[in-house]
Amino acid sequence: MENVEEVSIAHVETLIGGLLDKYNGVESYATRYMEGVMWSDKENYYRVSGTEGLVGAVGAGVKAVWEYIKKMFAKIKAYFSSGDAEQKANKAKKDGESLSKTIHINTLFPKDRAMANKVYPKLIEKLRASDLPEFKAFLNKLEQAKDGLAKDQLQDLSTFYHDFFKRELTEIPFPGKQVRQMLLEGVNALRHRKAAYDESGIRNTFLDSIMNELGKIAHDAGMFLFFFQKDETIAIHTLPELLVDSQKMLTVSIERIREIKKWVGGIDGDIRKLDAKVSSGDISEAEQKTLNELKATLGSVGSISSSVTILISGIQQIYKQFRFLE
């Protein structure tokens, strides 16, 4: 489920941790990761590979890493500025709106004779075209039931269709387990990020606002999970409600994507403020605090971006599954 912006954000987050650890003479996973990245990027690896002369020798390495971080952040900023993420969410929302117009209980199981005679033959063709084994079994059962009808009953099948579909097509195949796992992955990542922030002791208004949004989307996605209690099927009568709620989630996702664009702009300002000091290789306690806050902000933005992407992908799978009903 990784996207360019999510990989880049996690990448930069770890590099900032490596930069701070290296400057303070601490060997860690982050410093080893940083050294590997700088080596593979041919960014004067020898300048960051040593541990001696923390300010002197490492100062040049800090500058090299900082330049690389700025380069990577520029890519992150370019992605969110491009509007690609919002376009994907808007496309999914449009697909869902189209599907919602088609799928509601009265449309799927019409009682009106004229409507039934029009809808059910088309629905049978859609089920046949879907090529799912469950629908093949249903259609075989339907044909067997029709074979048992009297001649006068065959003259008008509207009542037969209505009763048979309402009785037999109560649940339809649905990738509930797969979608649930995707959503749980996103919700758990958000909750983990929130817990880590609460324990970090880092506090500022900017980060607090991001954490507030993070908590909201974790809650909304958690509530959305209630639709996926069964692994492989979904009850027909819950489908319209599922589509309505999925549209709400996509609206929330679009709002969060717009918030991320604002946050990335705020991060850009922090990087500009830090640039001269960090580039000099002499990082004061105040700059280290700001770098730690920047690291936390990037990580939180990455978690929200990832969870939104997962939500959109999960909802797109739902729409894809029921596209045959349009």
The total of beta strands comes to 2
Class of secondary structure makeup: mainly alpha
Question: Approximately how much helix is present in the residues?
Answer: over 70%
Spatial arrangement of strands, main beta sheet: 1-2
Structure commentary:
Helix content is 79%, strand content 2%. The protein has 326 residues and is mostly helical. It folds into three domains: 4-79, no CATH class; 83-99 and 174-325, no CATH class; 111-171, no CATH class. A two-stranded antiparallel sheet has the order 1-2. Helix 5 (84-102) runs parallel beside helix 14 and helix 7 packs across helix 10 (158-168). The protein is elongated and about 95 Å long. Mean pLDDT is 76; it is low at 43-58.
Write the layout of secondary structure elements.
Layout: H1 4-23, H2 29-40, H3 46-49, H4 56-82, H5 84-102, H6 105-108, H7 113-130, H8 133-147, H9 151-154, H10 158-168, E1 171-173, H11 176-200, H12 205-224, E2 233-235, H13 239-279, H14 285-322
Helix pairs in contact: 1-2, 1-4, 1-14, 4-13, 5-13, 5-14, 7-10, 11-12, 11-14, 12-13, 12-14, 13-14
